[in-house]
Amino acid sequence: MKIDILARNQVYISGRGKQAMMFAPGFGCDQNMWRCVAPAFEDTYRVIRFDYVGAGRTDRAYYDADRYAALDGYALDVLDICRTLDLQEVVFVGHSVGAMIGLLASIGEPERFSQLILVSPSPCYMNLPPSYTGGFEREDLEGLLELMERNFAGWADFLAPAVMQNPDRPELTQELKTSFCSMDPDIARRFARATFLADNRSDLPRVTVPSLILQCAGDVIAPLEVGSYMHRHVPGSTLVLMEATGHCPHLSHPEETIRRIGESLQPVHGGASSADGR
User: Fold this and answer.
1) What is the pLDDT, as a whole number, of residue 269?
2) Does the 5-124+198-264 domain belong in CATH 3.30.1300.10?
3) Catalytic sites, residue numbers
4) Domain layout of the chain by residue ranges
5) Residue 268 — very low, low, confident or very high, per pLDDT cuts 50/70/90?
6) pLDDT surpassing 70 at residue 199
7) What is the mean pLDDT of residues 146-154?
8) Positive or negative CA dihedral for 56, 57, 63, 67?
9) What is the DSSP string of the chain?
């Protein structure tokens, strides 16, 4: 049976530009999380948003446990979208695990991408001494996965404030918790295992697409050491330390996120180079 790729990933296209800018959400999130950032680029780009199977309004019937057992399966979805829409020179903006999914897709078909913008990325969440600090001990991650199995709502209660790190804005934490809980629990558990137990460090030197790494202060999910590690191992990458705090600057600090993305963009074909038309 032929799969409708755009329906499978609930692809949404907007904007008036010719060059594509694709926004990928992080774990437990859907394309709505980019609502405060993506529209700023619609004047100069063809903006493409999508969901992972099992998130947002996607049809769970498309879920394939074998395909999505590792992040490579999600990267294949990104390439499927690019092929279906015949996209070239895509500016890929990915948050958290979405950044790593885009990075893997760019290794698979680098000619389809002109730039990677990696927001709060991490190639590996585990501490692997003495050479790597990912932020978590393996037993901590296993405990988090076990909590998902025993008490899915309790897991969301625990993780959402740790991820958001903006206690003065509880509505953001609540939104993230709601997003986590909206996922199919079985799919969320498998995606969490593929995300938090992944080790993609060896993939970093294989990136050939110009890359911007946006690192936030106070990010317990992807700490400063992780951003520095990625910068050292992704050839030709640029690392920018944001004023934003926490792991989700596109929600907590959308204005700065828009500005940082805009400052990094290469000139758009036949037009402006950033969101404000400079």
Assistant:
1) 52
2) no
3) 96, 219, 247
4) 5-124+198-264
5) low
6) yes
7) 91
8) negative
9) ----HHHHTT-EEE-S-SSEEEEE--TT--GGGGTTTGGGGTTTSEEEE---TTSTT--GGG--TTGGGSHHHHHHHHHHHHHHTT--SEEEEEETHHHHHHHHHHHH-GGGEEEEEEES--SB-B-BTTTB--SB-HHHHHHHHHHHHH-HHHHHHHHHHHHH--TT-HHHHHHHHHHHHHS-HHHHHHHHHHHHT-B-GGGGGG--S-EEEEEEET-SSS-HHHHHHHHHHSTT-EEEEEEEESS-HHHH-HHHHHHHHHHHPPPPTTS-SSTT--
Give the chain's mean pLDDT: 93
Burial of 12 (0-12, 13-18, 19+ CB in 10 A): middle
Q: What is the mean pLDDT of residues 7-12?
A: 96
Q: What is the pLDDT of residues 85-110, one digit of tens each?
A: 999 999 999 999 999 999 999 999 99
Full-model pTM: 0.93
Q: State the Cα torsion 85-91-97-103 to the nearest 10°.
A: 90
Say which amino acid occupies 3.
Answer: I
**Tokens 């404000």 belong to which residue?**
276
